[in-house]
Design brief:
26% of the residues lie in helices and 30% in strands. By secondary structure, the chain is of the alpha+beta class. It has one domain: Alpha-Beta Complex (endopeptidase fold (from Nostoc punctiforme)), CATH 3.90.1720. The strands form two sheets. It has a six-stranded antiparallel β-sheet with strand order 3-8-4-5-6-7. Strands 1-2 form a two-stranded antiparallel sheet. The N and C termini lie far apart (28 Å). Keywords: Hydrolase, Protease, Signal, Thiol protease. One of its GO terms (molecular function) is cysteine-type peptidase activity. Belongs to the peptidase C40 family. This is NlpC/P60 family protein. InterPro entries: Murein_DD/LD_carboxypeptidase (IPR052062), NLP_P60_dom (IPR000064), Papain-like_cys_pep_sf (IPR038765).
């Protein structure tokens, strides 16, 4: 992914510092983090905004937006295999269909919204209020 002059460099630098951090349920540090912990820490450091520590809370703190309207820093929400209506996962949109998130199997990574799993489990985008 190429970072341009008009991109939010602080977001990319802060996100890069977390890449490879292992997944840990309930965690929000570089020793281990879950998805909402990563989002809350990146938002605090990048935007100086304190978000809830739960995916449900972060969804409530956002205005829902369509995938086609996503901008850098917007939140992306997904459902689980068990429920197609309840939010189960969150990440931060970067650009070009990519987002950073804490994956249970791989820790903090950048993934594509075009991947089959994320297409099937897409719930909505969220712009923090």
């Amino acid at each position: 992914m190429d970072i341009g002059l008009t991109d939010n460099h602080k977001l990319y630098v802060n996100a890069a510092e977390w890449i490879g951090t292992p997944y840990r349920a309930g965690g929000d540090s570089k020793h281990g983090t879950d998805c909402s912990g990563l989002v809350s820490q990146l938002y605090k450091k990048t935007y100086r905004i304190r978000l809830s520590r739960s995916t449900d809370g972060q969804l409530k703190e956002s205005n829902r937006i369509a995938r086609r309207n996503l901008r850098e820093g917007d939140l992306v929400f997904f459902t689980s295999r068990a429920s197609r209506k309840k939010v189960a996962h969150v990440g931060i949109y970067l650009k070009d269909g990519k987002f950073v998130h804490a994956s249970t199997g791989q820790g903090v990574i950048v993934s594509s919204l075009k991947e089959d799993y994320y297409t099937k489990h897409w719930l909505c985008g969220g712009r923090v209020k």
